[in-house]
Amino acid sequence: MTDLGAVKSALRQQAIELPSWAFGNSGTRFKVFAQKGVPRTPQEKIADAAQVHAYTGIAPSVALHIPWDAVDDYAALAAYAAEQGVRVGTINANVFQDDDFRLGSVTNPDPAVRRKALDHLLACVDVMDATGSRDLKLWFADGTNYPGQDDIRARQDRLAEALVAVRDRLAPHQRILLEYKLFEPAFYTTDVPDWGTAYAHCLKLGEQAQVVVDTGHHAPGTNIEFIVAFLLREGKLGGFDFNSRFYADDDLMVGAADPFQLFRIMHEVVRGGGYDPAAGIAFMLDQCHNIEAKIPGQIRSVLNAQEATAKALLVDTDALEAAQRAGDVLGANAVLMDAYNTDVRPLLAELRAEDGLDPDPMAAFARSGYLERIAAERVGGQQAGWGA
Ligand code: PSV
Ligand code: MN
Ligand code: MN
């Protein structure tokens, strides 16, 4: 039997980090649909993220993307976030939106371009110092489009050199989170295409480098929960960029395409001790809301993650282990499915009510009039910086 009190207190510890870019206008290369009231400044993005936290109670931090969220004074931005009831979380570097990076950033054949890319990464660590952030998330668009275009091995050497330089600049409490993605924008080779490549680099870098799993960055059919279980077991899982995919890197709401996969991932997180805050796993969303309203899209995503987590926490581990030991294939599977098939919404509504939150965050936010207010007050909202 599962102890519901223990499940509730575990749920109270949950923290999902929101991406600042989820609040800006976004789209595909075909069209960016402008929405009314979207943020014009990093401060307004933080204010919108704070709404998500206010209604869910489990989204206390906001990830920034530099230079999309560039400001003169990052310490002041962190203070502003605190006033809003949230904090600045992971700093995401951006070495993919400059003409100089056509042939890559830290793996570019031109040393001057590599230097420019590295300088940006180091500047991101300066930002972390000012905001008090722990994690630097590194995703590189680097790769090649044609066989023979560049030397695959030399690019790995250049990547390793840059990563060492960044690691050497970190304070002891700071970490590199290295993100992989199988393709796009590079179509032939990608320099960090998979968890194995990221893991190998992080292993060489040591304690302060960990792998981040973006759930949208795999080939169809990849067993992501296996990757999670493996990395956790090796002490190399740094965090998640949660989102859903149907086709490629769709950046849709987490738990929308495949809630069962999200449950399986969270089950492995719980099983591997990754849900314990001491494990230091960063649970982040990396999403864009191209056609749906952004703040409700983020609230829905946080609730989806919370539901999957509640189900994972409900797994009767004693019964599961007993069935596994006995070689009871169907019994073991049934234990897992029982947890997945539990409707946890009443439990979560009860939890919120106990904690002074509205049991229905979507409805409460809709009633608040916030969207109407920002639509009237904010004119000329910013593009997220992604998907243009
Ligand atoms: C790349 O596709 C990625 O997942 C990286 O995390 C970027 O920083 C992010 O998307 C931007 O949306
Ligand atoms: Mn990502
Ligand atoms: Mn992505």
TrEMBL record:
InterPro entries: L-rhamnose_isomerase, Rhamnose_iso-rel, Xyl_isomerase-like_sf
EC number: 5.3.1.-, 5.3.1.14
Keyword line: Isomerase, Manganese, Metal-binding
Origin: domain of life: Bacteria
GO terms for biological process, alphabetical: L-lyxose metabolic process; rhamnose catabolic process
Keyword Amino-acid biosynthesis: no
Gene Ontology molecular function, alphabetical: L-rhamnose isomerase activity; metal ion binding
NCBIfam families cross-referenced by the UniProt entry: RhaI_grampos
Protein name per Swiss-Prot or TrEMBL: L-rhamnose isomerase/sugar isomerase
